[in-house]
Amino acid sequence: MSRRLVTVRKVSDTQPIRGADRIETAVVDGWQCIVKKGDFHIGQLGVFFEIDSFLPGEDPRWAFLESNFINWNGQRGFRIKSQKMRGSVSQGLLIPLGDLPEVTGVLEELEGKHGREEAEKLVQGLSFEAALKVQKWEAMDNKTGGWNEISKAPMPAFIRKTDQERCQNLPHVFEEWKDETFQESTKMDGSSMTVYFVRNDSDKVQHLPEVDTAKQPTVVQSNGRFGVCSRNVDITEDYGDNGSQYWKVASNNQLAGKLSKLNRSLAVQGELCGATIQGNVEGFPVGFHDFFVFAVWDIDAQKYLAPQDTEALAKQLGLRHVPVVGYFPLREIATSVQGLLQRAEGVGLNKRKREGIVLKHVRGDFSFKAISNSYLLKHGE
Ligand code: AMP
Ligand code: MN
Fold this sequence. Notes:
- By secondary structure, the protein is an alpha+beta fold.
- It is 19% helix and 32% strand.
- The protein starts with 5 loop residues before the first strand and ends with a helix.
- Mean pLDDT is 94; it is low at 143-148.
- The chain binds adenosine monophosphate and manganese (II) ion.
């Protein structure tokens, strides 16, 4: 499921900001946003735009943000970031429902069918990014940013994307999962990378794009197909000649040979990090690039391996793994969104301020992230 960026949420608290008389804070789920004083009261619904929403500049309703518009992916618009105003963190944009007919229209329609109370519940389960032409802002790697020109193939649909939900959107998780054990790992800030191997006898192999083996000699192995993907794109092998690190790092780690020898239909997912990736926030030395495994997707079973099995497999394949803090019952890690955000503050592999932490349930598929607020503010995100 792709992340819901624009949602209707209920305000659970409002607080004045010391020294400010025109603004105050409003809380929706685990998020705190700064709003115009009096715009919201407790229990009121608002339309919440999560950080990393990209608002289209041509929509006149965003004109008030125009002085901070950016160019992104060939478009002009506003990227919602974390901000600090008068000492208070503001994350996301909260707009009164009545300002957005795209939303009130849906609510009224639901109300006609189900009554007000039920309609309010239902509308909170929907997402409005499509209706409002909001996109998820993503860093564009210079080398893979224009991915349409690199490869026409998206990452194979039978591989799960590496996105993680933010803990602020899961305020009930601390009660519901408190006795369950999670792996806590460091979130590294590079680029998502997936390498896959699909056996020739797998029914999935027919869904892979055709290859020109003269240009892509490594892709066709005797017992199956090998591929290297960024977050969204199956990258063609010859694209490596352009200086893109994905295939280079895969080749330095002899991944095609290792996965073919293992002879299992798997997608190994990790973070591509190094001197030229995403501003090298982790602080790796010049020339260093590598792949730090954080998950393994079982292509035939269509589920993730348990985190312990992922660690063992990374070791067996001679690959680095993202740092693992340990395995703990959730209640020992944190009991609230605020507590988890506190715990996310810390340092990474090379002792620089880390992006955050990722919690993965010991039995596989459920996981989520906590991003350090001080990291977001420091990097202007
Ligand atoms: P974001 O970068 O905020 O979109 O968060 C999700 C991304 O975090 C995933 O797509 C991964 O590329 C990346 N990531 C970095 N470290 C980890 C980790 N330890 N576990 C899972 N994902 C990670
Ligand atoms: Mn990232």
